[in-house]
Amino acid sequence: MTVTEHTQHPDHSRQSDHTGQPDHFAAGGEALRNRVAELLTATRARSTALTDAVDDGGLVAQHSPLMSPLVWDLAHVGSQEELWLVRDVGGREPLRPEIDGLYDAFQHSRSSRVELPLLGPAEARAYVAEVRDKALDALGRVPFTGSRLVENAFAFGMVVQHEQQHDETMLATHQLRAGAPVLHAPAPPPGRPPAAREVLVPAGPFTMGTSTEPWALDNERPAHAVHVPAFHIDTAAVTAGEYAEFVDAGGYDDPRWWSAAGWKHRVAAGLTAPQFWERDAGGTWYRRRFGVVEAVPVDEPVVHVCFHEAEAYARWAGKRLPTEAEWEKAARYDPASGRSRRYPWGDEDPTPEYANLGQRHLQPAAAGAYPRGASPLGVQQLIGDVWEWTSSGWHPYPGYEMFPYAQYSEVFFGGDYKVLRGGSFGTDTASIRGTFRNWDHPIRRQIFAGFRCARDAAPVEGA
Predict the structure, then answer these.
(1) Strands across the sheet containing 292-295
(2) Which among 80, 83, 50 is positioned nearest to 67, based on CA atoms?
(3) Do residues 207 and 16 touch, judged by C-beta distance below 8 A?
(4) Could you give the percent of the chain with pLDDT greater than 70?
(5) Partners of 387 in the beta sheet?
(6) pTM for the whole thing?
């Protein structure tokens, strides 16, 4: 179902894209270089922690055919950093041109990478360290002017985001890995369910996407006005307890709730509950989380469900999944000012008070755990905790321009991909914003994905 219509708003000045920038962008120069250096360092520290958590055997093993060996991810982020920051931006000669093909994600499927002559753990670590030295040299001497690639340090921000995305992928590999727990983190703050179950988002246009966010990627651009009819959206993501009611009511056995494609996949894959769930003889649901087996926490968002499962639950509940435009309007639109914010809570960068991000916790937080992160309309936890499936397919925005390479977004447009929004507890703050778009096949469950529901608003009499 399509509920959006691209339109020109008669008072577009009130619908303008956010034009302010974080302090380090506004200041430029050394302030921006220092910020980039901090992000590069913090990102590499996370990559190191994720790869140092297992021994060499765990690094080179393939823990699931859906995922690469961890050692491939490690050298791949170094290879991309070399291509963009050392060779392109820095103008240096290639360090290891003979390995370019090994770490080209388009040349080898994830399931086949374990068979490649990859760099071993020690060699991979030495390679990424050498690349980083050269990248920091480029950071210190290359001016942030003269081309779109270096303006506002875009190439450096792209590399930070790329590595953080692979860090989240490696975190998902850890979830699929068998064996004792090796990752540890404190529990997230307790929740308090929002007072209202859902809110009405009024009809009207809003500005979707961005033309001014310095490190936004090409698929987030350009900003454009979208008209969205009135709809209701849940103030919290569907919890594991709510989802268990669907399971216990026979939702996986009733084709009424599933699309034709969804039911076909459910039968073929033998789906009976979210991934990593098992029920004991007494009927209690348990889950395996990074090697820990624990009772399913009923107040947390359900996680590790595919699009088809999310869609079936929503239909069972008498609702539907939001479109991508509905999700973004609920997350960014401020009725008081008429403009779109960078984040639900405002224009400030994420901090621990606003959202569950950055692998600070190894699980979603309970509903209502971050009231300060709510949108102006009162929708909570739209950023962090779980990626949220939408009903929309993966397509470019009107006026889309590929930059700086087609293999990030363009080659994936179309197909059966579905859009996810908002990030998860494993998404870093540098890699998420209100405009960020993610996409995946509708059968994927290893990602940290959940969902919230929406429904059409009743038409207003006399309208």
Answers:
(1) 277-279, 285-289, 292-295
(2) 50
(3) yes
(4) 93
(5) 449
(6) 0.93
